[in-house]
Amino acid sequence: MTEALSVGGRARIGGAAHIECDGLVHIYKVADLEVVALQGLDLLVQAHEVIAVVGASGSGKSTLLDILAGSKTPSAGRAVVNGNDLTRMGRRERTRYRRRVVGFVWQQTQRNLLPYLAAIENVELPMVLDGRSRTRPRAMELLHLVGIAERADARPDRLSGGEQQRVALAVALANSPPVILADEPTGELDSRTSAEIFGLLRQVNAELGTTIVIVTHDALVSEEVGRTVSIRDGRTSTETVHRRERGTDGGYRTISEEFAMLDRAGRLQLPRSHIERLDLARRVRLRLEEDHVGVWPDDAGDDGR
After folding, report:
1. CATH 3.40.50.720 fits 2-101+177-266, yes or no
2. How does DSSP assign 67-108, residue by residue?
3. What pTM was estimated for this model as a whole?
4. Among 22, 58, 87, 209, which has the highest number of CB atoms less than 10 A from its own CB?
């Protein structure tokens, strides 16, 4: 018996994706140099998914998150979140988008919580800024959801790292956004507390249907989500789908299957381990077979093997 961890039915560019990035390019300047952070990145996320975006430092994952957060505008390409085209937003629309469409959980506490406000006041703040009334009942409801209602009157400096991230998640959920963006949400936590936070994210996804995108450099996060998208050199390089399979003993194990990503121009990035093992460089031979495409080193024998 197999239980998929990810949502079934693949979305397509221009289709029913909840988050759609099509050919994203982002270029920024450092002194007199231009740096290309994203080089035609494609990404599709369906509603109610929990996915991880992983990659080494400088791969472009943080730039992608900034674009989805509405804090950066791509140099080219298209990014749509919950029907909102981020490339066509004015300042007022962008502010409304950040308050109502996406919630944020950052690695650093100072980005999540104001130090001079109690936990419950931090949760109320996004609702107050959005002009809502009767914020206290909603704030308490969220603190109960994340399991920290008993610490409602504590300020951030009186909370542990795990407690701070629980409050941060409640803050992110304050205005009921359909999407949560989490940037290294467990980067400063120990393994046990990290597991608790990931369990809480899965609970929020299951109970509220919130789409969650987790950006991280930690490949082990893949065990906590249904799908992992790897970014390399500013492009999506591989996608790993995880499913739970029940064994004959009644227990479950996680099965992962990795796919190379083919962009709209027909380009793909081979996994680095494959390239190194076969000593592939510069150019390779391709052969179209009946049901697959073969790839061989340029110095292959006459029979192509």
Report:
1. no
2. HHTTSS--SEEEEEETTEETTS--HHHHHHHHHHTEEEE-SS
3. 0.83
4. 22
Question: What is the CA angle 270-67-171, rounded to 5?
Answer: 115
pLDDT band, residue 178 (cuts 50/70/90): very high
Q: Which two tokens stand for residue 239?
A: 């996608």
Please give the residue that has the higher pLDDT: either 22 or 302. 22
Q: Do the beta carbons of residue 169 and residue 190 sit within 8 Å?
A: no
- For CATH 3.40.50.300, list the domain ranges present in the chain: 2-101+177-266
Say which amino acid occupies 57: S
| DSSP notation for 134-148 | -HHHHHHHHHHHTT-
Residue carrying structure tokens 């943080």: 62
Compute CA distances 76 → 20, 173, 257, whole Å: 14, 30, 31
**DSSP states of 232-282:** ETTEEEEEEEEEEEE-TTS-EEEEEEEEEPB-TTS-B---HHHHHHHT-BS
Task: Please give the C-alpha separations between residue 270 and each of 37, 68, 87, 305, in angstroms, as whole numbers.
Answer: 20, 26, 30, 18
| Tens-digit pLDDT profile for residues 197-216 | 999 999 999 999 999 999 98
* Pairing relationship of beta strands 211-216 and 179-183 according to DSSP bridges: parallel
Residue 217's nearest CA partner among 191, 186, 241 is 186
